Amino acid sequence: MPSREAPPVAPPDARDVDSLNRGLEILRCFRPPEGALGLAEISTRLGIPRSTVQRLTETLVAHGFLRRLAGDRFQPDSACLVVGHAMLASCSIARASRPILDELAARHDVHAVLGVRERLGMLCLVHATARKAAPIGFLGVGMLLPMTATALGRSWLWAQSGSLQGEIIQRTKVERGEHGARTIPGLYRSFQELEERGFCLASGEWLRDVFGVGTAVTLADGRSFGLACKVALPDSRKEQLGARLGAVLLDAAGRIRDAAVRLGD
Question: What residue ranges define each of the domains in the chain, with the CATH number in brackets?
Answer without folding.
Answer: 14-81 (1.10.10.10), 91-262 (3.30.450.40)
